[in-house]
Predict the structure.
Amino acid sequence: LKLAQAELGYLPPAAVAEVADLVGVSHAAAHELVTFYSMLHTERVGRQVVEVCVQLPCAVRGAEGLLRQLAEGLAISPGETTPDGLVTLLRTHECYGACHRAPMCRVNDEYVENLGDKKAVSNLLKRLKPGEAALTTDSRQPAAVDGDAAGADGTQQEPTSQPPAVDVPTAGGQRSAVGGPKPEGPP
Amino acid sequence: MIDFQPILLPQTRRTEPMWLEEYRAGGGYAAWRKAVLEMSPDQVIEEVKASGLRGRGGAGFPCGMKWSFVPKVEGPKYLCCNADESEPGTFKDRELMEVYPHEVIEGVAIGSYAIGAEIGFIYIRGEYVTAADRLDHAIGEARKAGLLGRNVLGSGKNVDILVFRGAGAYICGEETALLESLEGRRPMPRSRPPFPAVEGLYARPTAVNNVETLANVPHIIARGSEWYNTIGVAPRNTGPKIFCLSGCVNNPGNYELPLGALTFRELIEQYGGGILGGRKVKAVLPAGISAPALPDAALDTKMDYDSVQQAGSMLGSASLVVLDESVCAVRAASRMLEFFRKESCGKCTPCREGTMWLHKTLLRLEEGKGSQADLDLLLSLSGEISGKVLCALGDFATSPVTSTVKHFRDDYEEHLRLGRCPYDPWDA
């Protein structure tokens, strides 16, 4: 499933079914994994997924303010994707183990920490905002995601071509440098 | 400050990984060599038992005893290193794995040998990409050096380690849910018995140990249990412990100290640099959000398993979240219950439904729309969850509620009286 998501950016039902057939489990067994884990997406997400931890240790150090500044800077609400499909902003209750460098967020797989002052946040926004290098050619459609269920995918940092959702390539493609389970067992 | 040279995290503030060459130059893998070439598995277990090492993941169960429960039967057995560190306020295993991956690997190797496992899994949360990549690299180094794999160091024994990356679920830190996840199923806790020691991964004998627990093991084997007993408070609270200090303190971070050496207050003031803005401590959560909050009156409690338990809470993973007087207890409880509501796996009805209603009730109270009856409802709901579920998540979820109602009832009453929250909002 992680390999399929690495290729597609998310896991549409057809991809989940194909993975299930490949490893020999029922479609339902695969589906119930996709809906359980926060790092697996059932909906399209932006090229960059920004997850702001607002759990207690971060919350008492300005995480809500960070979330508000990012939302204002990106002109979207938490849980939404920018209209150009580049950035998805998520408010998450999960703790990422960076409480000593709070407030923080994850941008795809990268930890961006110590975001307590406005300058650090504006630097991050500059990086995220459309128009920046290497991010201008994206043609992905915008889509809203469920803020409760979504999380960053482990393998989205390299911009890749975006296949249409209905055309599901096989999941046995090239493994990315990061993420992906060992071959010993699913998912 | 006390005079103590950290053992598990020897170089404070280091962030770069210590690779094999440097690790070996500092004495690394001497314990592994000693264990696999000079000691029998039983001798390893006895040494760890004698050290008094207790599980650092939260439960504090004696590590050597856990290993001794694994039956000596033919066929595959497994050691699983629990690296699904997800408890809010906990970031010790991350530093261990990111900076000292070989220390963790050596511990997993020795543990695997002790219980007769040829494969040790490290189940790491999916978000810890850097730590997982570094572990993978370090395992590659160890294999190349003949420290892992077939016929380790010419001993005739086979021990290898595999890193398994999770995909985002707090419940996977629960040992039987972790095993379900490893097997590729939805990670819902199993009912016990059978315990994992008898029927664990793939229905085979399995030991599940926390990262920090296993990182202690090489030091115990290399320097002996007698030495280990001189650290901390023998016999039940021995060894070093990494205290994760976060929340409203000036210098949050990991501080490795002997168990029972300091009180909460001493750690906060001497290491944490006191409270932000010179404010006063309101509460300390000693084990992330899962253990009951302690009021400032308990700050002079020594930080070891037994003392914190006597004070009415749990040392657990020793993840101290410090809340100061500007933090609303009702809002804090509500935020914590949001976590448990969303992380409840849904298997047991009392937890699935109970955490939802606890969170809803807390939200209502925080907005000032609650009633006196809601306070009673919180306590009765907590009673309906506690002890009536398969795993500890349900019990943990009641801790923020019952402890804040007990120690900070004034905050709740003030919300009821004013019809609003008397504290400043968090996004100011």
Observations:
- Chain A is about 30% helix and 10% strand.
- The CA atoms of residues 23 and 185 of chain A lie 9 Å apart.
- Confidence is low (pLDDT under 50) at residues 133-187 of chain A.
- Chain A touches chain B through 52 residues (CB under 8 Å).
